[in-house]
Amino acid sequence: MDFQTPWIKYGVIYGIISVCLFLFSSYISPLGIWVQFFVGFLIMIVFMVLSAKEEKASKDGILNYGEALKNTFLTGFIGLIISGLTTLIMVHLVDPSLLGILQEQAVESVESMMSSFGVSDDVISEAMEKAEADMEAQFTPLSQILNILKSSIMVVIIAAIVSIFVKKNENIHDIKL
Q1: In Å, how far are 7, 13, 45, 73, 131 from 56, measured between CA atoms?
Q2: Residue 149 contacts by C-beta under 8 Å, 6 or more apart in sequence?
Q3: Cys staple from 159: which of 73, 75, 82, 176, with CB 3.0 to 4.6 Å?
Q4: pTM score, two decimals?
Q5: Residue 152 exposed, middle or buried by CB count within 10 Å (0-12, 13-18, 19+)
Q6: What's the pLDDT score for residue 150?
């Protein structure tokens, strides 16, 4: 396997930036779950496009849809694996107190969202308790691996859409017989 292939290179870069975003949001300045998700989503799209453009350039400007989809999906999937495994390592080996930080951020996010919708305090406190309980179960090793697999479905969908815009088929008039 050539480690200079665009999907490996950009997938690793995307994964490292995702980890940095996660660490920044967890330890330095909480961004909020939705902001972190949105920024991560945009970063993933940027690296998918960069990877596909580099792959297209290496193939004389031609990149069919299947090759574009493979390239963009693998870029996102590698970043997803790096981010997921790093989170798992951080929570279980490096800093178990991080789980508390993540629970606090999730509870604050739930409370903020529900308050903005005008939900009653009783319902909000019940939802916050459920969010706390769900967070503990979400960071078991098995749950984290399942989250990576579930998230890969979202990556396929995003890659399929991005691939529509980055593909370039060979012009039938340019084919030399």
Answers
A1: 12, 19, 16, 15, 44
A2: none
A3: 73
A4: 0.82
A5: middle
A6: 92
